[in-house]
Amino acid sequence: MLLRTSKCKYRLAVLIRVLLLGLPIFHYLMFGDGAVDEGATDKATFSSRHLLTLEPEKNCTRPAILEFPPDGLSRSQRKHGFIIVHCVIALYCFLLLGAVCEQYFVPAIEIICDRLNLAADIAGATFMAAASSSPELFINCIGTFVTEGDLGVGAVVGSAVFNVLVVPACCALAASKIHFNGNEKSYGLDLTNRITVEEQRINELEEGISITSESSMSSILSWPGSKSSFMSRCLWMLTLPLSLVLWLTIPNCKKNPRLYPVTFMMCIIWIAGVSYLVAWIITIIGDTLNVPDSITGLTILAAGTSLPEAVSSVLVTNHGHGSMGISNTIGSNTFDILLCLGLPWLIKSLFYPCVPGHHWVNINSSGLSYSAISLLTTLFALYGSLALNKFQLDWKVGLTCIIVYIGFLTLAALLELNVLFEVNLPICAH
User: Fold this and answer.
1) What is the domain range of residue 272?
2) Which residues form the Sodium/calcium exchanger membrane region domain (predicted)?
3) What is the Cα–Cα distance from 159 to 397, expressed in whole angstroms?
4) Measured between alpha carbons, how far is 167 from 302 in angstroms, rounded to an integer?
């Protein structure tokens, strides 16, 4: 047994090294040798905060949509109704990410944890949280290496706020009173550390998601039962193509545990590819509506990538494990803040700096610093409402969280749109 465990740990270590080394190599092969434009040789500071742009002489921010291939439609066509197509594709991508993570990636991680003989609480706080937050990691990789904008940072920060406020609110409104034990203290410390780094500038739908839970072809193609609602049948029709594609391309390690390495790698490929597609589509939507990347990340991307966690937390809560569901969701924020932001920034600053010899990463919007501070405030708001309610999560706490979340989105939007004061350079004409 000891020898078997050692072999499993060795294989896991090799796999992690391959993934870490493969990311820079993949970027080099896909996007060239890391050379930058001539306009990137000089940097300018905008206002008193470190707001940087690649071409300060234009006094504007390069639009992220120019870093993606064209979609074949003009902005005028999208504004006249074709943007609905992009919204539908984005919804499909969110459902696909949720299905891959919840039904394939998480079971593969569970098998890995079992092979390593990890305790359930340790596995849930580490590997399981990493698996559920993997879309945020890949989206920030796209935002860091491809668009070099604020899409990924906004998605991570917005997802963290969504997890802190909306998920507990959903659990509170969907269940009776839940006695809550605070496991967010370490997350609060991690968040404080991230805010400090940003201030200084960076150096170095249950049915739609669970439709793929069964492995056999008959269960995927079987029509919902007669007791199913009309909405369930509509979701079954909409998600049938996704379920079929995933069934054909990803082996089910629940039925064949020996295939968990293949399942793990295929999930990585799927999540990476769909994350790129999501970032592309959301960038197009934001460009069509003249919305900064940071706002689309804080709102649409954050809610879309966090939806699977919200659904799973509500399901766990309804089964009588409210503290487990909320703690798992809030605990995943540690992975979001530290690794989803830190790892891409580390690789970018070391291997692909915007200015050769200067190992830092640009953040175009200084408003994200205020959003990060607001994120810490939301954590205090959650704890304060729980303390006033004697640490019982009920509808009163849920309603408070919803109100605070709406306030956060309003404040973030006003900041990013330069309504309160100027924090963003205008987007360059294109």
Assistant:
1) 60-70+119-204+264-416
2) 88-190, 261-412
3) 20
4) 12
User: Per residue in 326-360, pLDDT tens?
Assistant: 666 776 777 788 888 888 888 888 887 777 777 77
Residue type present at position 345: W
Residue 53 belongs to some domain of the structure: no
Q: Examine residue 19 and state whether it is found in any structural domain, yes or no.
A: no
- CA–CA distance, 137 with 412 (Å, rounded to integer): 22
Neighbours of 193 (CB within 10 A): 13
* Ramachandran sector of residue 292 (left: φ over 0; alpha: ψ -120 to 50; beta: rest): beta
What's the pLDDT tens digit per position in 121-147?
666 667 766 777 778 888 888 888 887
Domain count, the chain: 1
Running DSSP on this structure, what letter comes out for residue 175?
Answer: S
The single-letter code of the amino acid at 332 is S
Which single residue is written with the structure tokens 């993934």?
19
**Exposed, middle or buried, 418 (CB in 10 Å: 0-12/13-18/19+)?**
middle
Rounded CA separation 354/345 (Å): 12
Concatenating the DSSP letter of every residue in 121-152 gives HHHIIIIIHHHHTHHHHHHHHHHHHTS-SSHH
Q: Residue 47 falls within a domain, yes or no?
A: no
Task: Flag whether 199 is in a domain.
Answer: yes
- Whose CA is closest to 90, among 313, 408, 307, 263? 307
User: How far apart, in whole angstroms, are the C-alpha atoms of residue 122 and residue 242?
Assistant: 32
Q: Could you tell me the CATH number of the domain that includes residue 379? A: 1.20.1420.30
Estimate to the nearest angstrom the gap between the alpha carbon of 296 and the chain centroid.
12
What's this model's pTM, rounded to 2 decimal places?
0.67
